[in-house]
């Protein structure tokens, strides 16, 4: 009998890092980097029942909310089932979600997502019954109903079960009918705010300058690093929608902050184009510790009155490779920084530690964000 347990603790090559080198800042349209005040989706949610399942629904004994909903629905249909022992497995309680697009009109349709709430095994072949979808204000904005399409499946036998994807979630294309509109008259407004998706003072000012140069008068004013106020100028031939249409195709160059994003769980490091490093010397060593367990079984002689015991045997090996001291010159670029660190043979985990150490030394002109 022999069992070998090997545990390796390595500070080199623990994960594959994705190091993205930002290209020079590219120009972008205003419509691609800002959101318009009031032009937004609204989230809807509802609770309903899915019927027609092939024995893969909720167990009514384990899901009392499914039983209560089924009894209440049948009572509305004129069928009294209170006090009876229902054993159907073809019904499942679900949560239905959808996003109500901006300016959606009454009578139009939208897609809905359906997710099992109880212990249903699959929603395949099921049909969602009429389900009101409510907004955050408690009002019903849409009604959902229809057959569910799922991407996964589940097949089981007496001794094995195969599950592909997630069979307890599905989607109904155009499955909801909008019953109530969100009142918002954008065309009647005299001013709107443009919200930057990536807040930055320089970008906000460039947006305002581009708009004012097009209109020929101070129409846009940057309020902060995330907001630009847009006012309909006097004598403009159109409303605020026409003005937005004219300015959203303007092209500007967004400014990028000096920032490094680190994901320590996966070893991913993303560095921005503006990252700079002052003169600093770096030394790094690779340490590998390998622990091998090789227990031996000691059996007594067949004629001896003894016991069989397991004798532990542990082997520990430590390998350390020292690298040379390297120097990064004043205000090196991102490419030079990466080339210098790669020359040291640095792994993703070591790169994270080195960047944090350079920041602690005050030699890194960038913000580090750990996610």
TrEMBL record:
It is found in: Bacterial flagellum basal body. Keywords: Bacterial flagellum, Cell projection, Cilium, Flagellum, Periplasm, Signal. It holds the Pfam family FlgI. Its main location: other. The gene is flgI. InterPro entries: Flag_FlgI (IPR001782). GO terms for biological process: bacterial-type flagellum-dependent cell motility. Belongs to the FlgI family. The lineage of its organism: Bacteria, Pseudomonadati, Pseudomonadota, Alphaproteobacteria, Hyphomicrobiales. Assembles around the rod to form the L-ring and probably protects the motor/basal body from shearing forces during rotation. The basal body constitutes a major portion of the flagellar organelle and consists of four rings (L,P,S, and M) mounted on a central rod. This is Flagellar P-ring protein. Residues 1-27 form the signal peptide. GO terms for cellular component: bacterial-type flagellum basal body, distal rod, P ring; outer membrane-bounded periplasmic space. GO terms for molecular function: structural molecule activity.
